Amino acid sequence: SQQGEEDPQALSIQEGENATMNCSYKTSINNLQWYRQNSGRGLVHLILIRSNEREKHSGRLRVTLDTSKKSSSLLITASRAADTASYFCATVKTGANNLFFGTGTRLTVIP
Amino acid sequence: GAVVSQHPSWVICKSGTSVKIECRSLDFQATTMFWYRQFPKQSLMLMATSNEGSKATYEQGVEKDKFLINHASLTLSTLTVTSAHPEDSSFYICSASIRLAGTDTQYFGPGTRLTVL
Fold it and tell me: Residues in chain B with pLDDT < 50?
């Protein structure tokens, strides 16, 4: 399977705390993307990091990429109850244009 | 911009019937559309890649005769689940791809929940 894996599978934190999710993948990639999905809804694109980038920021989001370890992390700082959702990493293989999703992390932020 | 719609948003059907799901890119033309399915509390699994005017490319294990994909225009792709059975009940999500700054970016539809009785 080309599907990546994420950990933890579930994460519960207090509002204001930081949340860190990790993603590991198996093949060489062109880029890695993070998505958010509220329960039973579509996906919202959060951030894209290319294979030649090591870190990227967007608002309260910080993404790192380590291609030597085939892993990425998503950090959400100063979490809010509205951040409660499932978060998925997805990779685009070198030479391809389709996404392969990780197993996802269900984040619960307690007010 | 870059809005993708799906219709219907949910559907309930009897076993043995066929169901068609539409995916439209509303404000852009997408040469490539993708279809995914998602079981409860699980990840998205790519079913097929659909290019306008050509046959879809199916992922391993996905029956092309059961999941018929038609990509008739640059803004519309359809997925037809033929002779649906209860095990086909799932959340089906499409995405449409557009190239921005040299990178293909997928925009996802809101999903269609299919329940087969």
Answer: none
